[in-house]
User: Fold these one by one.
Assistant:
Number 1:
Amino acid sequence: MASEGAARRKCALITGVTGQDGSYLAELLLDKGYIVHGMKRRASSYNHPRLEHIMDKSYPNSERFHLHYADLIDFGSLCTILRDTQPQEVYNLGAQSHVQVSFQLPQYTADASGVGVMNLLEAIRATGLEASMRVYQASTSELYGKVHAVPQDEETPFHPRSPYAVAKLYGFWAIKNYREAYNIYACNGILFNHESPRRGEIFVTRKVTMAAARIKLQKQECLYLGNIDAKRDWGHARDYVQCMWLMLQQEKPDDYVVATGQTTTVRRFVEMAFERAGLPIRWEGEAGSVAEMGVVASGPRSGETVVRIDPKYFRPAEVDLLLGDPAKAKRVLGWDPQQTSLEQLCNEMVDADIAMQEDPTAYIRF
């Protein structure tokens, strides 16, 4: 009977498994009984700390988790991993995903985040798996860029404002085209900003919470930011990977906006993070200028400047407002976008970053 159960067990492949979303998705799928194969790129340094707890033998179902070397820009490696693992579900989370970096590495971003999607779809066809496989593509709210409507839903026109968004637009339409041309079950999840204690340290929310923690412990003097009045729709990555999975469980493939339906400024997120760290701040100087600064408002460190504006963090083309409408995901998938409030998310991130100052592996508990 055990072998029959194993034969029925679903198998999934996650590209970008070493990232924030990949680690949460791997946990979710293992909990659901899947065999999970993760794809990672070769690196000379240790590059999967977010997976360390999953790879520990004491983690539930850890024996069903397997890592493989492959790359979205290496077509042959994609064919090999698909042929060897024979997954029923593929979650393409791999990309060069940092907007600011994409202005410095536009061609690489185009290859990894755009052409890589086409490589994956062609590898599925080359291995003859198009009829038996379901594909999730990690699309992005950055597609909307210079927004044409508020809030943004599945019908809102796209206006990308970065090489990253342009590359993701290529991937978005590749998914739609292969769905229509070859009848591949392929979905785009247009995910708005989603964060967690596992978020990369160069992304603004994690940069803020890490700075709040380090400044609290007097390991850092000041946080430097760009446009603090930019507005974003922030959710928890742990909640958003549930929606990814739900997309591939439907009778027909489709594209969905994944968002909370609420928008908040970077400024407000900073206030929440420093409040949690016990350093409530007030703003001084001309609002919206490079002279504006955040100063500790009360307590033993009252008057200490902890936030400054640095023009080097301004983007060549700014995206000022992103606000998603998750009505379709709620209606069709039964997904709840309000599982974790922004305040809960911010508090969790700050608490984790304070804990990590003492133990660098502490984030796996969050």
Note: The longest helix spans residues 106-126.
Number 2:
Amino acid sequence: MIYEFKGFIPVVHESSFIHPQAAVMGNVIIGKDVYIGPGAAIRGDWGEIIIEDGCNIQENCTIHMFPGKSMVLKAGAHIGHGAIIHGANIGANCLVGMNAVIMDNVELGDECIVGALSFIKADMKIPTRKMVVGNPATIIKDVSDEMIAWKTKGTALYQQLPAECHETLRAVEPLREIPKNRPTQEAFYKTLNEFKKK
């Protein structure tokens, strides 16, 4: 659902895909090839939210801020299932892990990786290419070339997903039995540990 709020209508590039069960309202600008999953809430009611090209905001994420603030998710930011971004700026090609919480005025540098379930407290400034984990979160190491290559490959899959959703996603009635010719799915992306073993 896309909602106008106080005269602000979201701007969404036609190549992006917003699931019908997501909610986008108010002062929101969404670039090219962005995927917004079901259950995501992107509330530009109190401030501006800019989601640059190639980002993905997965199922049940929340993006919001305090009144009068603006926030940016830079190109290629990858926001994992259930994460909350509240008034933070997310650098280019970052990975925010599942159910992480990033609070107000956080500046997450480019190509950072935030571990699942991490809590980044307000006003924290994180330099480029750092791995951040824990509650409260701390920087534990630099992000290696191998790690960022793995992340970038995963994000590329999400950058293809909007076009695939536009082409093939449709509401249907369920089948009542498994068809004999049911297709198989290829394992075309590996976990980081599997990626390292290649």
Note: The CA atoms of residues 157 and 185 lie 14 Å apart.
